[in-house]
Amino acid sequence: MPQAIAVAKDKPTQATTLLWSYGADVATTAGSATTVSAQVNKVPPRVRPIVRAAIKAVRGVAPKATEIPYTMEQPRSTRMMWKLVRYALDGENVVGVGTFADHSTLFFYRGRELDDGSGLLQGSGKDSRFVTLRSVSDAERPQIKRLIRSAFKMGGPS
User: Fold this and answer.
1) Tell me, what's the pLDDT at 30?
2) Global pTM value
3) How far apart are the C-alpha atoms of 120 and 106, rounded to whole Å?
4) What confidence tier does 116 reach under pLDDT thresholds 50, 70, 90?
5) Most buried by CB count within 10 Å: which residue of 22, 78, 102, 141?
6) Could you tell me if 74 and 81 are in contact, meaning their C-beta atoms sit under 8 angstroms apart?
């Protein structure tokens, strides 16, 4: 098994991409190992299936994307998103999965530029937008997969 390496908090390194491509799902920061499955297992049981469905949707659309777990712990505030994992293409973040107490969220780093004929994208930030997922079936909707596909075609931050 390859050795785990330290990764930057915001951008994957070339070595991280290489590590992920060999099937390891471990990233370390400040000496602590985090895996996507470990992060998902910490999520409250009522939203865990939604988070898993969101991750499955991203992996299904972009199986070669670099998967980078966040090392964030569950927030104390129920109003703050718990970022769990992000997916990158050519070293640039494209889409992430986070959760709140009662729903999950797909967030798109270049969401402002996505053509969303479905009206699903929310938010008014400088670049990012998000989609709220309240059920497993929400994550499985064709419109969601279309948004994910469009985001990966566009790539990471310009």
Assistant:
1) 42
2) 0.77
3) 11
4) confident
5) 141
6) no
Q: How far is it, in rounded angstroms, from Cα 78 to Cα 66?
A: 29
The pLDDT assigned to 125 comes to 83
What are the beta bridge partners of residue 69?
Answer: 85
End-to-end CA, the chain? 34
134's CB contacts (< 8 A; 6+ apart) are: 50, 102, 103
Determine the Cα–Cα distance for residues 35 and 43; give it in Å rounded to an integer.
13
Structure tokens at 104: 């999950």
What is the secondary structure of the chain as a DSSP string? Answer: -PPP-B--SSS--HHHHHHHHTT--EEEETTEEEEHHHHHHHS-TTTHHHHHHHHHHHHHH-TTSEEEE--PPPPSSTTS-EEEEEEEETTEEEEEEEE-SS-EEEEETTGGGS--TTS--B--SSS-EEEEE-SHHHHT-HHHHHHHHHHHHH-S--
Token digits of residue 18: 């290489």
